[in-house]
């Protein structure tokens, strides 16, 4: 979920070229660093019977679940995200869940695909991290090559049907002036989590120990830094897991869909 | 310098109407609350011999010295800020300085006016405070009816000729989510100090005791709040005082120029 811009190897690669390498099996690892500058997306696939509730859940929780696109039931293409795109083959690794239990990890879902499935593609922090790094704001977890620390909070999401639960946040330690600049920059990117939802006082959002994240790895917070918290794409994953749908498919963490959209085109201003 | 929007009496008053009441002597007090929604400005008047250096000082320090307009030498009108406007008569109280010493406070400067004087009108926090209050963000000093706390910092200004010195900041305690929203809102108003320049850790900018301001009055900071710091219009006043020009005139603190500009028109987005 991190390490954006650290892989110089793939500079100049288009989103479509990255997808074709994944589809052919040439690339089977995490997608961080592929097709720099192109939007990568989290994915959740649900049966149509649950899709309306989840679509509404995303609409009501846009900071945690910024929906880039959802598919027509049974249709594995998503023209809005890329012309030559098949969600059954274009992610390097998928997780298949039954009744809330992970049953297998696979490299395509052609065998699992059904006519009633709806895919949800959700924005990810890669896009705004690229904008922060390009502005000269250092990100500790990327510099350290570690995963961003993530925490369950006491901030509830807006429930929709079976989908409900706490907001999960990611944390990046920043110097105060960089924190202010990061608010400005990420406010321009509402479709990839937008502005932070908290800053400075983890205990106020139910985080007991900021050095013990619930997901990812800890990041040191220095004396001249503030912890800055963004709503995180793990929120919908946790909410779906808690809802225990009879069937669903997600991307494996770090193995995202690379799209044809440029990150810069997500900026609203 | 505060208490914006607390005086319901003057709702509907235009900037021009407020100036005419001041000019006639009908209004002789501070200008907070006059002509709600209209921009008020700090003023400094310098001899032409110093004007170029000060104009450049403002240009290089736009967050502390956001220049709304400066006059032609000897011309007491400022059409860009109001059609019927005379800076010699339209502020309720002026301070006259010689060699860095305050020599008199007067209610007009017709007798002191000279052909070589240049007036500088500088944006003030009234405008962004109005935007914050209208968004539902409470401001402690206004709720308490006290003056905003202000501090000299270790953040230097960019020097220009004789004009140099530390940045002075104002502090407003805000809940973290309100602090994030306040960054967004005030970023839209670069001509009235813009985004905060610091947040959360006063000691990092040379403030030893946040309850002992250098100017204004202290504001309580509660456990669920962060101190948020904006560059402050006292910076140019302090810089001019330190430069000890042989002659200058300023507005008396709180007795500002009311203009014909709407606060909302200062928003860049």
Mean pLDDT of chain A: 94
Helix content of chain A: 10-25%
Largest sheet of chain A: 7 strands, antiparallel
Oligomer type: homodimer
Summarize the structure.
Chain A is of the alpha+beta class and 269 residues long. Chain A has helices at 15-24, 48-60, 126-134, 140-143, 176-187, 234-243, and strands at 38-47, 67-70, 94-98, 101-106, 117-123, 150-156, 166-174, 198-199, 226-231, 247-251, 257-262.
Describe this structure in words.
Two copies of one chain form a homodimer. The first copy, chain A, has helices spanning 15-24, 48-60, 126-134, 140-143, 176-187, 234-243, and strands at 38-47, 67-70, 94-98, 101-106, 117-123, 150-156, 166-174, 198-199, 226-231, 247-251, 257-262. With 269 residues, the first copy, chain A, is α+β, with helices and mostly antiparallel strands. The first copy, chain A, has two domains: 8-125 and 243-266, PSTPO5379-like (3-Layer(aba) Sandwich), CATH 3.40.1640.10; 128-236, PSTPO5379-like domain (PSTPO5379-like fold), CATH 3.30.2040.10. In chain A, strands 1, 2, 3, 4, 5, 10 and 11 form a seven-stranded antiparallel sheet that branches. A four-stranded antiparallel sheet of chain A has the order 6-7-9-8. In chain A, a hairpin with a 2-residue loop joins β3 (94-98) and β4 (101-106). Chains A and B meet through α5 and β8 of A and α5 and β8 of B.
